[in-house]
Amino acid sequence: MLRSSFHQHLENVKDQISHLGKEVLTQFDQAIHAFEHSDLDVIKKVISYDEQINKYELEINNEVFQLIARQQPVATDLRSLIVAMKIAGDLERVGDLTVDMAKVSKRIDAESYLEKKHELLTMALDARKMLEESLVSFQTKNLIVAQKMAAFDDKVDAQFGQFIKGLFQNETSEHGAEQLTQLAFIARYIERIADYATNVAEWVIYESNGEHFDLN
């Protein structure tokens, strides 16, 4: 009875993480939209919703702490709880980065540097796909999908490096340099989101076999 109850609570925790993942994906979608369209209403929405994302993570952590205290799990059960906390933390940090994206989007001239913005939007959609796929790997325990994150992360890293390398080549004005600096911030936030998506995949692999593989 106790073990059955534990596994039911563990499934509830995993459902909470799936819900948090969906909310964070929505935040990222809105941050991408806000950046592309300089949509102040969406920017405000992303910033204000961060408190709810933090609350979801706290609820997951509290549930895990209670399960550890009451059930004293060992071996694979304890590993699953540790993974739950780690993934919740990584998702919360993605939420923070979407807020950073939204805040910086307010300072970017919507009509300037359209080509650079297009590069960033392509990079953002790739990172978004990574996050979505890593959540699928968690929900389905699909290690093949999780392992693919290494190649995806390399792609985003290459995009980031190429973007930064070409960013300041032709700009001389003070205003232009400031705008490009803001675009560099956006690029860094997207690259970090891809890293956290990779982290989620690493935790999926760790939960399955107890070994930590560095996919970054």
TrEMBL record:
<dbReference type="InterPro" id="IPR028366">
    <property type="entry name" value="PhoU"/>
</dbReference>
<comment type="subunit">
    <text>Homodimer.</text>
</comment>
<keyword id="KW-0813">Transport</keyword>
<keyword id="KW-0963">Cytoplasm</keyword>
<dbReference type="InterPro" id="IPR026022">
    <property type="entry name" value="PhoU_dom"/>
</dbReference>
<keyword id="KW-0592">Phosphate transport</keyword>
<comment type="similarity">
    <text>Belongs to the PhoU family.</text>
</comment>
<dbReference type="Pfam" id="PF01895">
    <property type="entry name" value="PhoU"/>
</dbReference>
<dbReference type="InterPro" id="IPR038078">
    <property type="entry name" value="PhoU-like_sf"/>
</dbReference>
<feature type="domain" description="PhoU">
    <location>
        <begin position="121"/>
        <end position="204"/>
    </location>
</feature>
<comment type="function">
    <text>Plays a role in the regulation of phosphate uptake.</text>
</comment>
<feature type="domain" description="PhoU">
    <location>
        <begin position="17"/>
        <end position="103"/>
    </location>
</feature>
<protein>
    <recommendedName>
        <fullName>Phosphate-specific transport system accessory protein PhoU</fullName>
    </recommendedName>
</protein>
